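User: Predict the structure for this protein chain, please.
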Amino acid sequence: KNRGLFVWTKWLIVIK
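Assistant: Here is the predicted structure, written as structure tokens:
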């Protein structure tokens, strides 16, 4: 359930 949040955060950092 926390996997989706983890991926979202990682993508946000990558996009930045």
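The CA atoms of residues 4 and 14 lie 15 Å apart.
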